[in-house]
Amino acid sequence: GCRTVVSNPREKNHIGPIRLLNPPIPVYVKVNKYQRPIEVTINRKISRILEINEVWEINMEWWRPIPTKRRYFRVTTSSNNNLIIFLDMQNNDWYIQKS
Question: Residue 27 needs a FRET pair 20 to 30 A away by CA distance; which of 10, 60, 88, 96 works?
Answer without folding.
Answer: 60
